[in-house]
Write the structure tokens for this entry.
Amino acid sequence: MAKHGSTAPEKIRESTRFYPYFKDCIGAIDGTHIPAMVTRRDKSSYRNRRGIISQNVLVACNFDLEFIYVLSGWEGSAHDSKVLSDALSRRNGLKIPKGKYFLVDCGFANRQQFLAPFGVSVTIFKILPVMIVTPKM
């Protein structure tokens, strides 16, 4: 996985529209559900809000759309904010440099180092590509 850098991507650095607001942003975090096969006994905890048996996977990516952190294995019924709290509490978990932050969607609460949209229900990975240049090959 890629490491998060200390400087803002060129697209943000050179934009008077984005730089003042996103200069300290590392990237985006979101949860996704991956279908899972579990024992009959565990099915109720892995059933997500849509009724599908799944694992809730937390993913963080930078502005080059590279994964910088992935945490898998949580039950589909687990809320995104609970999975994020687990990622932050692990010894080798998600680390965020002081003064930096991640964009998150409305499945997460606004808190220090995490910026969620206000009054908008949108998946962050749908708007992130609008802010960046096509990833380098």
Notes: The two ends are 16 Å apart (CA to CA). The mean pLDDT is 83. Residues 80-89 form the longest helix (10 residues). The helical segments are 10-13, 19-22, 43-46, 80-89, 124-131.
